[in-house]
């Protein structure tokens, strides 16, 4: 271990440094063979500002998305229902961001119950997000590649599918909920951490590998399969309208992967190192911790991006929002006529939604 007695004795005075065990458990005693690492891998005040902006954008944006979809009951498509649930998941997670921001600035001061709840919401947001996107990919695959209207004609099935997605997301997130707690370090500070006794590191790997296999890898493979064949069919059809209609869906999937894939790849690297497949050193541990901090922020950022995609790419979303504003007297009908907006129609029953 790259640690010296001087390093240990300087812990209290060097407030920018902390120690980490190779077991994966935060140090509860001073005699723990520590690695010295920089706590503030990212400036905490910048992180707090980012979280505050994401919170505001996410609450506003996802609320508008839900309003537009719920307002248009008649023309609501199957994909719209999935996107509605995606907005609900992002909104629920966004409500926890003030807590995460405070913990970045002051440490964990909220106790064990809130530690469990916000950790659960974070995990449920991630799993429900990728599972909903996987369902959208299957829906588009069936509608475009096989030209079937099975799910669209039986919309009540979609409600049960969404209920199943929420249930599975909660199940995959339960281990974190059960074992997370406000854990005291040896200097009396608290961290929100999963604690499983002396075998914490080993059980952490089990709790990490199983959910990510069923809640990330498998849905990702489903999306790759479905969108691969969907794209091939669209290119063969040479219909620009279908291509345009799929832009929003592809953008949503791409943004999700750009935000969450880096974090999951870093988790894989961390898992490989903790299981000794990759040799663990203090330098590598510090690099992994920095990467986890940075990519986690990227994942949090995702909760506010989908509404921006709908606003800038989804013509129907913009039209639907303007129609609501007209109905509430906030925008004149002349304004709609001037911009050539006469009606709001969602995707056709058999066509892809472009919200």
UniProtKB/TrEMBL annotation:
- Superkingdom assignment: Eukaryota
Where the record annotates domain G-protein coupled receptors family 1 profile, the positions are 61-310
> Does Amino-acid biosynthesis count among this protein's keywords?
no
**Which InterPro entries does the entry link to?**
CCR1-9-like, Chemokine_CXCR1, Chemokine_CXCR_1/2, GPCR_Rhodpsn, GPCR_Rhodpsn_7TM
> Quaternary structure per UniProt?
Interacts with IL8. Interacts with GNAI2.
Q: What does this protein do?
A: Receptor to interleukin-8, which is a powerful neutrophils chemotactic factor. Binding of IL-8 to the receptor causes activation of neutrophils. This response is mediated via a G-protein that activates a phosphatidylinositol-calcium second messenger system.
Family from the record: Belongs to the G-protein coupled receptor 1 family.
Name of the protein in its database record: C-X-C chemokine receptor type 1
Organism for this UniProt entry: Galeopterus variegatus
The lineage is: Eukaryota, Metazoa, Chordata, Craniata, Vertebrata
Q: Which gene encodes it?
A: CXCR1
